[in-house]
Specification:
It catalyses: [DNA-directed RNA polymerase] + ATP = phospho-[DNA-directed RNA polymerase] + ADP + H(+). The protein is α+β, with helices and mostly antiparallel strands. It is built from 7 helices and 9 strands, in the order E-E-E-H-E-E-H-H-E-E-E-E-H-H-H-H. It folds into 3 domains: 2-77, Phosphorylase Kinase, domain 1, CATH 3.30.200; 83-162 and 232-245, Orthogonal Bundle (Transferase(Phosphotransferase), domain 1), CATH 1.10.510; 172-226, no CATH class. Helices cover 29% and strands 16% of the residues.
């Protein structure tokens, strides 16, 4: 059975012939890094699960080779649907999830992030598609470590995440349009070679693009671009501040 596809590979549901255990098996295509990318993801997932003390991360089961092709596969715990899928299945106009359920979910997310950060691992791609919901929808688990990094690697990386959820494009050109509409279009001085790109020569003449930045109009009081991301609340502080700091019952 084909499960929801990750950022860099396809995932299938399978059963271990000897044990009967249901697992999820991921393959990473060559266009997304192939074996090297898969082994890198496996490394971070294994480290995040090390010692079994992070119950809110999808379990690591190992790396195997496909008998027919000898391609590497990442074997993981099989958990229920993604939060993204569950939210999309909600009927229009239906009431939001109960506050207690939201608090429990946030506590689990903060706990998962705190344990990873303590192990010097940053997920970098926490979103509804990578949050799996299982055990009667009472437990959530982080998945897809394809973009994970270690804070011990170069360049240095910190747990504080991006401050730019403003540009919600759904494809490459749409992403650029969303950015340029607010920040203005670049030129060869700010983006060397921009005038020769396909976007500049083909797309821009057909679009009414903003030439100047309008960021200050959206944030007249406090400019988001001036905020230091390192001052953002870490997962540990967020749990202390939140009323959801108690574990779910």
């Amino acid at each position: 059975m084909l499960l929801p596809q990750g950022a860099f590979g396809a995932v299938v549901k399978a059963r271990h012939r000897a044990t009967g255990q249901i697992v999820a098996i991921k393959r990473v295509g060559e266009d997304h890094g192939g074996h090297a990318a898969l082994l890198r993801e496996a490394r971070y997932l294994e480290e995040a699960c090390r010692g079994g003390d992070n119950p809110f991360v999808v379990g690591f089961r190992g790396v195997v080779r496909a008998p027919a092709t000898l391609d590497l596969r990442l074997v993981m715990e099989c958990v229920g649907p993604s939060l993204h899928d569950l939210l999309r299945q909600r009927a229009p106009g239906s009431p939001p999830p109960p506050e207690a359920a939201v608090r429990a979910a946030m506590w689990q997310l903060f706990t998962a992030a705190k344990k990873m950060h303590d192990g010097h691992i940053v997920h970098r791609d926490i979103k509804p598609q990578n949050i799996l919901v299982g055990d009667g929808r009472s437990v959530i688990k982080l998945s897809d470590f394809g973009l994970a990094m270690s804070t011990d690697e170069w360049p240095p990386y910190e747990p504080a995440g991006t401050l730019w959820p403003l540009f919600q494009g759904f494809y490459d050109q749409g992403q650029l349009c969303a950015i340029f509409d607010m920040l203005g279009t670049p030129d060869d001085s700010t983006w060397p070679g921009f005038s020769s790109t396909t976007f500049a020569t083909v797309m821009m003449p057909e679009l009414d693009m903003q030439r100047e930045s309008h960021l200050h109009e959206h944030f007249p009081e406090r400019k988001l671009s001036k905020k230091d991301s390192r001052s953002s609340a870490a997962s540990s502080r967020a749990n202390r501040r939140s009323a959801s700091r108690q574990p779910p019952r």
